[in-house]
Write a structure and sequence with these properties.
The chain is 15% helix and 20% strand. It has 25 helices and 64 strands. The longest helix is centred in the middle third of the chain and has 20 residues, at 896-915. The chain is globular, with a radius of gyration of 36 Å. The model is unreliable at 1-64, 69-86, 112-128, 841-849, 1109-1368 and 1386-1437 (pLDDT under 50).
């Protein structure tokens, strides 16, 4: 590797010297070449390749452009493409630094397949392409670039999707800068740096030639010279002819290799294509009808035969003559398409069609039978008047084309029935449009209309007014009265402030009216007498008056309604949603509705329900949760009610006759009340109950309720969590044979009855936070999938001989006394997600948890889709200081992006902290960089993200802590201060944020009726989903909150949590539990019991910040680079002996992916290395707590808070398909036998060992740098007087920063290390995360997912990290006290003293016989090491 780097550097120097020879620096270009005939030596390419002459159009003496060429760049710009030195020399870098309007454009050359939207992880294996790095300025045009290169044009591709030819006057670098600015980058220098990053190619990429997609060509046009025979008669001879398949026809030339003669056209729609069995690779094409013709075509190869057969089969299967050329990046249609004169439907959506050219829009009138034309999303800019000449047109779609006007020629299309003009900039329509008598559908949504166009009065066939997302501020009902043909009015997402009628004239024709998401404070529609459906959600309505003659559906949620007036009684009303209003009582007319079936009055102020309402003979679904109900009226007779939701009220009891009067009741939710009992299922022993789902969570029920549940023998889901159950009657549980999901969490159960084995359909058992001591007999159930017995008192597990193959998740964390044998773990090996605690051999292992003023717990629950699409990142010790980092990521329906963010976002934050100490800057850049690093995975997939960073202010390193929160999407953070919730995040959804709604509307996005951008997501800001740019962007909300002594804890949750659990309830819940893990589990259980069906995640961070709180770290200046964060990732490691002595260095690991690891998980290529070595033996004692003025002995930036190395810390072991695992089958240490004593804290399963490790740990780092200040120098000199040598440079055992994995540090002189063959490459090659590691020299080293498997997914790479500085800052007044404290400490590891070191040599000396394992970059050589301020292109290029 060292030789390769040296060769690359030599090539780079040669290329740079050649290219800069005779060059000069221009103002508007890059480096102006004064010798046009100079031939550069391009690295890796033919040295004779020229740069091109300057005789092209528009060239002049001042537009020379420096082109550096590199080869075989990875498609997605992942790590290791080209080293920095092989890109630019010092001349180029100096020129770039001179002006932020200069930069680099990466030009991809060669004809390759562009990234396809559905490529996924496999796209990284696509052919690699050459790359040219072009230095230019923001004023450099495409014409100038092409003139320098003798190119024909440039192309741009956004998000791996369509490829567009750039206009000659467009400026590529300015486009790049504008794109980055729209993403959220605000600093010009950072924009310049990001523009040159090759990772950006997954977002925006420039090509010097149009990329060719073979699949696209196949679906557009097939042609070749083959043997052809006409007709079925054997009299016809075979002859070589050119054959073309384009559109709906097969075209056969009459002359070989020529299209000048007669062309034979064979229409294929409705015809046949069949295989000719008696000839190899032969197809028979037949047209439809009585005059059908037949052609036989014999192909040369099987590939040609299959390609033609596949495409022709699609054509003949059509019922109409439809040609779909959408999303092909076309500028013109294929010329052969005009031979298909039978085409009636042509789809050219999502292209870049031009007017001119043989296949341009001007030629579309040649299709004589064309009826439907779709030209949406073509960036036309102007209305193509040529389409007005196609008189047969009945359907025309010109949506999203930035149109400002409609020409008067539109009146020529007298047959037009459907016209879609949505998503443009129209503010008026021509009067000629009114002459289209057959027009019945007109789409004008998301334009700039400020009023309803008057021309609509003449369009008598149009029955729907589609004007959502315009600028209509007022609506005169008399205007609608004049348009007597309009029945459906859609004015949602406008700026309506009032709707009024100045006359008593009735509006009788309107039946459906949509006014949601406007600014109305009152609404009187009593004159709309035939109204059937009204949508007025998310306004500010205080009063609502309607006519009830024909009203069928009323949607009026999320307003301020205190009453609703409808006259007369709406006897046709079947559905009414009045949720999230201010109703204190229900109007009387509600009880008189004869046909009402669904009533939603949740989140109001109701204190009672009318008896007549509950006894209604039509009501089937009643949602009355989150009110102030104290009682439910008695049922007088049998009612048809099927679903009843009464959660979050103040009910102490339910009607005695509820279950045997509501025999159709299938769903009942009475969670979060004060129930002490439930009514019987029937008055007698025989029950007719049909109840299937029963939610009784968070009440005061005791074990007596178990007997009352027996009658519900159809029960499938039972949630009875957080009650007062001491036991569950065994005989009663056996009667619930159809039970599928059982939640008994948060009670006082000591055991689960053995009769649970009778519930053969049970697939989910959740019983955490009890006192269960015996593992229940559930592992013999045939359909069991999920078992959660965490936070109990289990001691052992009795297992059957085999486990059910259906078991996917088993959670046993929080059972401190649980001991698992090797046999047990071996049985668990097939479980997809296994969560266990790490065991600590000594109580001193808890020392780490006390070293920070916070600790955390989290919980995740999968929803109905049974797919966990959420991830949590929790790091209690972040970097070298007393800092922490927590994050949650919600992918909604995808699990890839949350996993990728979980693995990399902490690393990205570490690197950004090295570049800036301004919260808004480093947090914003962290999100934007993470968005870029998602690579191709982030093109079509996205996730909400929330990141919390606890730190001290850089201006006051010894002061109080601050909490910086950043988020996109719907993940939220809530701080508990004095028992009250303090929201810290901003919900970026279109429904909750009016500013974002306006921004998205201004960018002309199409927002569907469910308030989703293009029907995809309700979020306006996400990480990923880059194909929705600029509507959906990754720029986060950033907020910093100083922490104080009144701050108790922090709650992080996703949308599914806070949709069901309010901020105040979440705070009260955590206050009552206190233990963070149990509190997080309770929050998820509550949300699930309250009705959430989606993935739920919650993280609770307990804060212990007081004025007198001490920490275990010296304050670290913000100017010091921070180390990468640890991330919990389960791995499989080679078993080792329990002997504390160091293992042999031959215990190297051969790492490989577990069979469960998918291609998407390969993308999680982030992390460093860590060792699972156990500490040296020594007396175990709990160290005293130390503050910044009383530091404990440290090693390389990590405090060892006591005189003796401690045991491991309790952590979470979790193995999931989304996490990389490694096999130990290739281990040569011979310790895989069960006879060996197991290592403490290591969970083994026979041939494999499972242990939770910290893959981003920076616990040991060699710091060869000298102090940066005289004070630091004094402190280091003082440290050298002590028996153990220099302060912070002792040979010791270090406890990992987060989860307590012990990292054994041993070493030799750095100079010797550099000479070692096994480590010589460490100083020249970095891993993808910036770590430097010697696998063969590390003992029992756990390597990360990126390097070991040798499988590249190309999603992203973790950023390179710089080493944190290890400076101990001590005020002069306390130096003596520090000296005395350190003298009183005993050595961490017994052994010979370190040899003396000259003061000038700052390299630490390690007396351990084995070389160290490194977890971060090493800077070789002695001497001071300043903090490197990289130049603009040092890291990017």
């Amino acid at each position: 590797m060292a030789m390769e780097d040296e060769d690359n550097n030599n090539i780079a120097i040669a290329a740079t010297n050649t290219q800069t020879k005779g060059g000069d620096v221009g103002d508007n270009g890059a480096c102006i070449d004064r010798q046009p005939d100079t031939v550069p030596h391009q690295a890796g390419l033919n040295p004779t390749a020229g740069r091109g002459s300057r005789s092209g159009p528009g060239s002049h003496a001042a537009t020379g452009i420096r082109v550096l060429k590199q080869r075989n760049m990875k498609r997605n710009g992942s790590r290791g493409c080209v080293t920095r030195k092989t890109r630019f020399g010092s001349r180029e870098r100096d020129w770039l630094k001179g002006d932020t309007q200069r930069g680099c454009v990466c030009l991809y050359v060669g004809t390759v397949d562009p990234q396809t939207p559905a490529s996924g992880p496999q796209a990284s294996s696509t052919p690699q392409t050459d790359l040219q790095l072009v230095l230019c300025s923001t004023s450099t045009t495409v014409e100038e670039l092409c003139a320098q290169r003798d190119g024909q044009g440039l192309y741009v591709q956004l998000h791996g999707d369509l490829v567009r030819r750039l206009d000659p006057c467009e400026r590529p670098l300015q486009m790049l800068y504008d794109y980055l600015a729209a993403m959220g980058y605000s600093q010009p220098v950072r924009v310049q740096q990001e523009a040159a990053n090759s990772d950006l190619s997954c977002l925006i990429r420039f090509y010097s030639e149009r990329p060719v997609n073979a699949d696209q060509q196949e679906r557009t046009l097939l042609k070749g010279v083959f043997n052809v025979r006409k007709g079925k008669s054997q009299l016809h001879k075979w002859a070589e002819r050119q054959v073309i398949l384009c559109g709906t026809c097969l075209i056969v030339a009459s002359v070989k290799d020529s299209l000048t003669g007669k062309m034979h056209i064979l229409p294929l729609v409705g015809g046949k294509v069949e295989e000719v069995k008696r000839r190899q690779h032969c197809l028979m094409f037949s047209s439809a009808g009585s005059q059908a013709q037949t052609y036989f075509v014999n192909f040369d190869t099987l590939a040609d035969y299959q390609r033609w057969h596949r495409q022709a089969s699609k054509v003949v299967s059509q019922t109409v003559s439809l040609v779909d050329l959408s999303c092909y990046s076309l500028e013109v249609v294929p010329e052969y398409l005009f031979y298909s004169q039978d085409i009636t439907h042509l789809n050219l959506r999502h292209n870049f069609m031009s007017l001119q050219g043989p296949g341009g829009l001007l030629n579309l009138p040649r299709f004589s039978q064309l009826k439907s034309l779709n030209l949406s999303h073509n960036r036309l800019g102007v209305f193509p008047e040529c389409v007005c000449e196609i008189l047969t047109m009945t359907e025309l779609n010109l949506s999203c084309n930035s149109l400002h006007t409609v020409p008067v020629q539109i009146g020529n299309l007298q047959s037009l029935q459907t016209l879609s003009l949505d998503g443009n900039y129209l503010s008026s329509l021509p009067e000629d449009l009114g002459g289209l008598s057959q027009l019945n559908s007109l789409g004008l949504s998301f334009n700039n209309f400020s009023h309803i166009p008057a021309v609509l009065e003449r369009l008598s066939a149009v029955d729907k007014l589609a004007m959502a997302g315009n600028r209509v501020e007022s609506l005169e009902l008399c205007t609608l009265a004049r348009m007597s043909h309009l029945k459906n009015i859609d004015l949602r997402l406008n700026r309506l402030h009032w709707v009024k009628s100045e006359s008593l004239e009735a509006v009788s024709q309107v039946t459906q009216l949509d006014l949601r998401d406007n600014c109305l404070d009152s609404l009187d529609l009593s004159s709309v007498c035939n109204l059937e459906t009204l949508h007025c959600q998310r306004n500010q309505l205080g009063t609502l008056t309607l006519s009830g003659f024909t009203l069928r559906m009323l949607h009026a949620s999320s307003n301020r309604l205190s009453t609703v007036n409808i006259y007369p009684v709406p006897n046709q009303l079947t559905y009414m949603d009045l949720s999230q209003n201010l109703l204190e009582y229900l109007p009387d007319w509600v009880c008189d509705c004869r046909k009402i079936e669904m009533l939603d009055v949740t989140h109001n102020l109701l204190s009672e329900l009318p008896s007549r309402l509950l006894n209604s003979l039509s009501l089937r679904k009643l949602l009355a949760g989150n009110n102030c109900l104290r009682r439910v009226p008695d049922l007088l007779d049998h009612i048809p009610l099927e679903a009843l939701d009464l959660q979050h009220n103040k009910l102490a009891e339910l009607p005695e006759s509820l279950f045997y009067k509501a025999l159709n009741l299938k769903y009942l939710n009475v969670s979060a009340n004060a129930l002490e009992s439930i009514p019987p299922s029937s008055p007698s022993e025989e029950s007719l109950s049909t109840l299937q789902e029963l939610y009784l969570t968070a009440n005061n029920l005791n074990e007596n309720c178990g007997a009352l549940l027996v009658g519900h023998q159809n029960l499938r889901v039972l949630h009875i969590a957080y009650n007062q159950l001491l036991s569950f009657p065994a005989s009663k549980l056996s009667k619930l044979e159809l039970l599928e999901e059982l939640n008994l969490s948060g009670n006082k159960l000591k055991a689960i009855p053995s009769t649970v084995s009778s519930c053969k359909r049970l697939h989910t058992l959740i019983a955490h936070s009890n006192h269960i001591t015996v593992f229940p007999e559930i592992l013999n159930l045939p359909e069991i999938k999920l078992v959660d017995l965490s936070c109990n008192e289990l001691t052992e597990i009795q297992l059957p001989d085999s486990l059910p193959s259906t078991l996917q998740e088993l959670d046993l964390t929080g059972n401190s006394s649980l001991m698992l044998e090797h046999k047990t773990l071996n049985l668990f090996s097939h479980i997809t997600t296994l969560k266990l605690d790490q065991k600590s051999s000594t109580t001193a292992g808890d020392s780490q948890s006390t070293s920070t003023p916070w600790n955390h717990g989290y919980s995740e629950m999968s929803g109905q889709r049974n797919k966990l699409c959420v991830s949590v990142m929790a790091v209690d010790r972040f970097g070298d200081g007393v800092e922490a980092c927590y994050g949650i990521f919600d992918g909604d329906r995808n699990e890839e992006v949350p996993r990728l963010l979980q693995c990399t976002m902490g690393d990205v934050l570490c690197e950004e902290l090295q570049h800036s100490s301004i919260d808004n800057v480093y947090m914003c850049n962290t999100f934007l960089t993470s968005h870029r690093k998602l690579g191709m995975a982030g093109q079509k997939l996205g996730a909400s993200a929330l990141l919390c960073y606890i730190h001290r202010e850089p201006s006051d390193p010894g002061g109080y802590f601050s909490l910086t929160v950043a988020n996109v999407g719907t993940c939220q953070a809530v701080l508990c201060r004095d028992g009250r919730p303090v929201p810290l995040s901003k919900v970026y959804s279109l429904e909750n944020c009016t500013e974002e709604m306006e921004r998205v509307k201004l960018s002309k996005a199409i927002i569907t009726e469910d308030n989703k951008v293009s029907g995809v997501t309700c979020c306006s800001r996400l990480l990923g989903c880059s194909y929705l740019s600029p509507w959906v962007i990754p720029k986060p909300w950033v907020h910093t909150e100083p922490l104080c002594t009144q701050d108790e804890f922090l709650i992080l949750g996703n949308r599914a949590l806070f949709e069901r659990v309010s901020y105040q309830e979440a705070v009260c819940t955590v206050q009552a539990v206190r233990d963070p893990r149990a509190a997080a589990k309770k929050l998820c259980s509550l949300a699930q019991s309250y009705g959430s069906k989606d993935n739920i995640e919650a993280a609770v961070v307990s804060l212990h910040i007081g004025e007198d709180s001490c920490t275990c770290e010296a304050p670290v200046s913000s100017t010091e680079p921070r180390g990468p964060p640890p991330v919990t990732v389960p791995v499989t490691v080679t078993p080792g002996s329990s002997d504390p002595a160091p293992l042999s260095s031959s215990n190297g690991l051969v790492s490989e992916f577990n069979s469960e690891t998918s291609a998407s998980e390969v993308g999680s290529e982030a992390g460093s290395t860590a060792s699972d070595e156990h500490p040296s033996s020594g007396p175990a004692s709990r160290p005293e707590r130390r503050c910044s003025l009383h530091p404990a002995t440290t090693l390389c930036g990590i405090m060892v808070p006591g005189p003796v190395g401690a045991g491991t810390h309790l952590g979470l072991f979790q193995r999931q398909p989304s996490c990389a695992t490694f096999s130990s089958n290739h281990s040569d240490n011979g310790l895989d036998s069960d006879d060996e004593a197991p290592l403490e804290g290591v969970i083994s399963n026979g041939s494999k060992l499972e242990v939770e490790v910290d893959i981003h740990c920076c616990a040991f780092q060699l710091r060869p740098g000298g102090p940066e200040s005289p004070k630091d120098l004094d402190v280091e000199k003082q440290g050298s007087d002590y028996p153990n040598g220099k302060m912070r440079r002792q040979n010791s055992v270090v406890v990992s920063a987060t989860n307590g994995c012990l990292l054994a540090v041993c070493g030799r002189e750095i100079a010797d290390l550099k000479k070692s063959p096994s480590t010589s490459s460490l100083f020249g090659k970095k891993l993808s995360n910036g770590s430097v590691v010697a696998p063969e020299d590390s003992h029992n080293l756990i390597e990360v997912a990126l390097e070991a498997p040798k499988k590249k997914s190309g999603y992203f790479n973790a950023p390179a990290q710089q080493d944190p500085e290890d400076q101990l800052i001590v005020p002069p007044s306390l130096e003596q006290e520090v000296r005395e404290q350190l003298r009183g400490q005993s050595p961490l590891v017994s052994g010979p003293p370190l040899p003396s070191i000259p003061p000038s040599l700052k390299d630490p000396v390690w007396d351990h016989p084995h070389p160290p394992a490194f977890a971060s970059n090493l800077v070789p050589g002695p001497g001071p090491v300043p903090i490197l301020q990289h130049e603009v292109y040092d890291t990017a290029l």
